[in-house]
Amino acid sequence: MVCTKQVYICHDTITGIFSAIYDAWKESRDTEAGIALRGCLMPQLFCEYREVDEKEQKSIAVERLIKNNLGYNAYWDLYHALLSDGPEKADAVYQTILAARKVKDSRKIMEHLSNPHVAKVFELSRKVANEAHLFTEFIRFRELDNGVLLSEITPKGRVLTCIADHFTNRFPLENWMVYDKTHKVFLVHKAGMNWILVEGEELDQTEAEKVSTAELEYERLWKGFCKSIAIKERENLACQRNHLPIHFRQDMTEFR
Amino acid sequence: MAEVIQEQISLYDKLQILSDAAKYDVACTSSGVDRQGDGTGMGNCSKAGICHSFSSDGRCISLLKILFTNECIFDCKYCVNRSSNDVVRTSFTPDEICTLTMEFYRRNYIEGLFLSSGVLKSPNYTMELIYAALYKLRHECNFQGYIHVKAIPGADQELVKRVGFLADRMSVNLELPTAESLKLLAPHKTRKNILAPMRLVQQKMQDNRQEIVLYRNAPRFVPAGQSTQMIIGATPESDYQILNVAEALYKKFELKRVFYSAFVAVNEDSALPAKTGEGPPLLREHRLYQADWLLRYYRFEAKELLDENNPNFNIFLDPKCDWALKHLEYFPVEVNKADYNTLLRVPGIGYKSASRIVKARKMGTLQFEDLKKMGVVLKRALYFLTCSGKMMYRTKIEEDYILRNLLNTKEKLPDSVTGMTFKQLSLFDDVNFREAQIQTIVG
């Protein structure tokens, strides 16, 4: 008899992957199964592929399952791993959840770094968290003529939800917006309200270029400041590059 | 006269002049205080601090670092803004400072404001202006981000206190390590005038801690602590003297940080070292920072690292390796038994890996592979450690032998010490370079 592996195919979103985990957990947690992302699928022999019916309810159920059984800290790592750009992330998270069934204390699953799936989740989660931290540093807003602050970024992972609380707390009375150009997602904050994520829209480039009159002057002041604050006798571009990789500079005011 | 010139200077030029004049101040950290925004204004602070950009010298830009004014009645020999220098003089108004800070902050350019100043008219007058600017920023603009402010030596106690309630960190620059040097290079400043506000801030912080215990919502006084900085290489002090001063500051004044600033020759003056074309003494500055860490995190004392006969750091070895080589009688230590303090003194073991070792060895006997995973730098530590009584390789416990091997492993200097090769070391780096040392290394 040929043993077939069941592979669940879903979109690269939290809802999609959590729905796939829901189906996989429900139907085949005791047999061999995996999760693959649509668009980065490598068909293998002896596998049966199935499209996942993606639903918000399934996603909520999985979130609860993880939080209740593995604890909030493990959920934090799993969630952040899913925001990364690695194609193997969904499977690593699913296998980690399965591995947690077998260890004595499921809440300590993230300490089992000798398990390759757990190690993968740990690596991805750290990558995303580090990238998100760098964006709290390097994001630059510009003021549009309607007073909205707009920032465009080109992150590798889906970092918007990681930085949202930071900026909401920092600029509670401002209307601001961060546009993730890689994944085409907006993070939108209206003054005095909480933030929301908007998907399926594209940035109107002509509107985005209409900056306020004061904006150009502040950009000029800032660029001037960045130059005058450097000590010529200590110039060290390698050190600057190590701390502020070239990749980030495309969206930063002082390097444009 | 000065006022006439001021009117014609644009905000852009003012910012150029007053940031250029502030750039020699080292501290740009926005760390030490964790504060969430209360939703009625703008800003918050994070404990570890946030850098926002890096300038072409590789230093981080975290705060809007500016002088209130570069007019100054003092004539400190090393300073660009000394009264005898002929430079364009200008001042910000409190409004301009508020606008710049708020507009830069809301674009996420900066983490807050670093406000220093030349002495305009008198210390008190200047401190009043600083107070006015900070008051406006905190209470009218409702700015809740980070503020680092300089206390002007000689200003009234009451003013220093009032400013301290508006700022997160306060610093008084010690400028030079000894009172004699200060007299020589900063004739208008005295050691007493510098230490008095430092003591005041310390006492006020202690009082404030009591107040907060009693009344949870009492206003915070300089919650991120105070720091200071010294110029290195402008005067002939030895590393030993400098380190002793730093130690005294940590112990007696409870400073958060002492910063060291490699002397950059901006003025020609007979009292200053001549311009050499060799650049600032960056390696010496680096060694002082390394030793500073040993004082703050590794429970070393200045007198253990250096003494009167050996008053300067070894340019080839970091201070910890240097200490270990001179005290081989303590080594090797047994990883599975040695107490935390002993582990801290082993080259290649940091304070984090030391505490990991102490925790992990409760679970089982540690081997060299385990140490590697915990972040111990074995290529340095292997000469000083045993695991279950065995050393990693067959090594001799001899100063010359270990020194030769350590030098072969090449210390990784940070990028901040630019492409430093032995040839570029200047006399400032090791004033009393020991001949015997050269022979050990060459031979």
Automatic annotation (TrEMBL), chain A:
Domain of life per record: Bacteria
Species in which this protein is naturally found: Faecalicatena orotica
Record-given protein name: Putative DNA metabolism protein
Entry-linked InterPro entries: DNA_repair_put, DUF4130
Pfam families: DUF4130 (PF13566)
Domain DUF4130: 88-254
Automatic annotation (TrEMBL), chain B:
Domain of life: Bacteria
Annotated TM spans: none
NCBIfam families xrefs: rSAM_link_UDG
SUPFAM superfamilies in UniProt: Radical SAM enzymes, RuvA domain 2-like
Name of the protein described by the UniProt record: Putative DNA modification/repair radical SAM protein
GO molecular function term, any single one: catalytic activity
Key words of the record: Iron, Iron-sulfur, Metal-binding, S-adenosyl-L-methionine
Transferase among keywords: no
Native organism taxonomy: Bacteria, Bacillati, Bacillota, Clostridia, Lachnospirales
Species of origin: Faecalicatena orotica
